[in-house]
Amino acid sequence: MTTASRHSMPQQTLRPFASEPGRWAREVQRARRRLPAAARGGRCAAPGESSRREELTRIHERTDWGWIRWQVPIGAEASGGPWQIAVLSPAKARTVRLASRWLTRRPPLRIYFDTRRRFWVTGTTVLAAVVSLLLAGAAMGNGLPADVGLPLMLLVPVLVDHLPGRLDARASAHVRVVQDGSQLQEFERFVVLHRSIHTSGQHTASELTGAVRLGHHLLWDAAGLLGQPAVRVPQERLKASERLLAQLAGHPLQAQSAVARRSHRWMTRPTTSSSPRCLR
């Protein structure tokens, strides 16, 4: 799926930590140290460990508008690009920042019960079980009935184990994710254009702030279109957003007026059904 444009658009590929030289090499070394020795050579220690290895070798590059998840190359593998691109809601709310921090947290520590690593619990669940055991034991020693203390002692670890999934669902409401292969490759162009706003050198301080803010809104709209593989993507809207991003990089004032005109057209577009008027 390609998008043709009359404007000159940067064709450079999306690279990890482009503004921080040496950061990618440090992150790769740190991620590889988290792997067992068998997995560092490209071999999987157990059939169920392939997904765990991928989880441990994903690096989050946080940005002002969201994040990019990169897959660390292991053994003879080569990194073909980002694994996931997520765009946060443009709303400047504390819940959006908290959602970003929660969804980009590090994978939890796992404690395995067998050599094939099929049965495991997280370190947080074990800690909650120990704390609940101590607190429930102390409470029952001070007179709390056992039929109340024992269920509480068993319920706390179960709740702690299921809590991250619930929080993931709540936090995902503030994020639009593009992860499908073809849509992800197309969305990379939008991210490259947005990055070029900072490096174009044609903005004043006020223009840069406005251009970055408008670019964030355009990324949010494009992620909403491309983040649903089962839905047919309206190419006209994608082309318009890509052209506006290119204008933001080169001519921010013209692009901001174009965005304002487009927003005005969408707000004043007549609807198919109208409510009856009241006659006086």
Provide an overview of this structure.
The chain is an alpha+beta fold. The strands form two sheets. A four-stranded antiparallel beta sheet has the order 1-2-3-6. The protein has a two-stranded antiparallel sheet with strand order 4-5. It has ten helices and six strands, in the order H-H-H-E-E-E-H-E-E-H-H-E-H-H-H-H. It folds into two domains: 147 residues, no CATH class; 87 residues, no CATH class. The longest helix is centred in the middle third of the chain and has 26 residues.
Q: Would you summarize the structure shown here?
A:
This protein has 280 residues and is an alpha+beta fold.
Essential attributes:
alpha+beta; elongated; 2 domains; 4-stranded antiparallel beta sheet; 280 residues; two-stranded antiparallel sheet; 6 strands; disordered C terminus
Distance between the amino and carboxyl termini: 55 Å
Radius of gyration (CA) equals 25 Å
Low-confidence stretches: 1-10, 266-280
Q: Any idea what the shape is?
A: elongated
| Tally of separate domains | 2
What percent of residues adopt helix (DSSP H or I)? 40-55%
The beta-strand count equals 6
Topology pattern, helix = H, strand = E:
HHHEEEHEEHHEHHHH
**Spatial arrangement of strands, main beta sheet:** 1-2-3-6
Largest sheet: 4 strands, antiparallel
Structural class: alpha+beta
Q: Helix count?
A: 10
The fraction of residues assigned to DSSP E strands is 5-15%
Nearest-integer average pLDDT:
77
